[in-house]
């Protein structure tokens, strides 16, 4: 049985930091990432990391968020710094396949965690 379990969400003030973690079991994924969904908005890919270490971020989080991966432990983390109110969303860990060709990232998540709430507010 494949499971993805997130942890680390919560309430933080603007400018603060949070670290999300995701532990995968039952499968080893070529690619793992984080999506988020804010109220009334579509789910969007925040960051993805491939087994070789290649990473890609959505423009709005570049320079503020860092995704990392521990292949031995089958876990990924998302370090979020300089958080803004617009980062408020439910964050979902996911795993799947994909790759990069000619600079174009192709990521197809197949398994999802239950989500963890991140709220940025004063």
- One letter per element, helices H and strands E, the order comes to EEEEEEEEEEE
Beta strands, count = 11
- Describe the largest sheet: 7 strands, mixed
Strand percentage: over 45%
What is the CA-atom radius of gyration, in angstroms?
A: 14 Å
Q: Which structural category do the helix and sheet elements fall into? A: mainly beta
Query: Spans with pLDDT under 50 lasting ≥5 residues?
Result: none
How many separate helices?
0
How far apart the termini lie comes to 40 Å
Approximately how much helix is present in the residues?
A: under 10%
Shape: globular
Let me know the average pLDDT: 95
Q: Write down the oligomeric state.
A: single chain
Would you write up a description of this structure?
- By secondary structure, the protein is mainly beta.
- It contains no helices and eleven strands.
- It has strands at 3-7, 10-12, 18-25, 31-37, 44-50, 55-57, 65-70, 75-80, 89-101, 104-112, 116-120.
- The strands form two sheets. Strands 2, 4, 5, 6, 9, 10 and 11 form a seven-stranded mixed beta sheet that branches. Strands 1-3-8-7 form a four-stranded antiparallel beta sheet, with no helix packed on it.
- Strand 5 and strand 6 form a beta hairpin.
- The mean pLDDT is 95.
């Amino acid at each position: 049985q494949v499971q993805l379990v997130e942890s680390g969400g919560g309430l933080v003030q603007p400018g603060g930091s949070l670290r999300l973690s995701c532990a995968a079991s039952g499968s080893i994924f070529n690619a793992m990432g984080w999506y988020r969904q804010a109220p009334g908005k579509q789910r969007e890919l925040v960051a993805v990391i491939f087994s070789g270490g290649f990473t890609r971020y959505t423009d709005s989080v570049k320079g503020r968020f860092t995704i990392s991966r521990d292949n031995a432990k089958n876990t990924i983390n998302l370090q979020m710094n300089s958080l803004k109110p617009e980062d408020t969303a439910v964050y979902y860990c996911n795993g799947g396949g994909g790759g990069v060709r000619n600079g174009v990232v192709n990521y197809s998540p197949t398994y999802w965690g239950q989500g963890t709430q991140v709220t940025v507010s004063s």
